[in-house]
Design a protein that fits this description.
The protein is α/β, with parallel strands linked by helices and 178 residues long. A hairpin with a 7-residue loop joins strand 3 and strand 4. The protein binds ligand AR6. It comes from Anaeromyces robustus. It holds the Pfam family Macro.
């Protein structure tokens, strides 16, 4: 993987609560019925307020590996991009979540996004493999076409110490500095 300073300036690893981030869009690790659940989904819905659940109810459904966008309501983030990760450890579906979130971001003329570690909580995807898929997929997406000109900031929001460690260990493989 070659060094690309422009790409490196776009990505960040940040540890903490995704509901506090002032970005164009935060990613929700949703369920296919788009109902308020537990984990990061529960945290996003409680901070956003009841209107978020109402907009999700109108949308109704999201397939595994796909993504849909709503407003952010009471969140500091302007929008929420809801993606449904795999429940069965399917890496292609997890890869698709990252790609669809980025596609939905740029289709809506938005330029900053924060991902959580999709599927690695309640859905049980192995943390290490998930971190490689997240970093590799985002790198490949940024390399494609002129995608790196279309976004300003992509944050990998890690919440657990294990993910903080894995992302810091693996980031240089996909985003080498020199
Ligand atoms: N900020 C950032 N990351 C968080 C936060 C937070 N406030 N809270 C948890 N995480 P999970 P899944 C991390 O379980 O595995 C829900 O019920 C968490 O540590 O939220 O995709 C949905 O409705 C983990 O790293 O999502 C679905 O039914 C990551 O977020 C199902 O759970 C994802 O863990 C989705 O399960």
């Amino acid at each position: 993987m070659k060094v690309d300073e422009k790409i490196n300036s776009i990505i960040k690893i940040w540890k903490g609560d995704i509901t506090t981030l002032e970005v164009d869009a935060i990613v929700n690790a949703a369920n296919s019925a788009l109902r308020p659940g537990g984990g990061v989904c529960g945290a996003i819905h409680s901070r956003a307020g009841r209107q978020l659940a109402e907009e999700c109810r109108k949308i109704g459904h999201c397939e595994t590996g796909d993504a849909v966008i709503t407003k952010g309501y009471n969140l500091p983030a302007k929008h929420v991009i809801h993606t449904v990760g795999p429940t069965d450890g399917n890496g292609e579906d997890l890869r698709s979540c990252y790609i669809r979130c980025l596609e939905v971001l740029v289709e809506n003329n938005l330029r900053s996004i924060a991902f959580n570690c999709i599927s690695t909580g309640i859905f049980g995807f192995p943390n290490s493999e998930a971190s490689h898929i997240a970093l590799k997929t985002v790198r490949e997406w940024l390399e494609a076409g002129n995608n790196k000109e279309k976004v300003d900031e992509i944050i990998f929001c890690v919440f657990l110490p294990i993910d903080e460690r894995l992302y810091h260990e693996n980031v240089d493989t996909y985003f080498p500095k020199n």
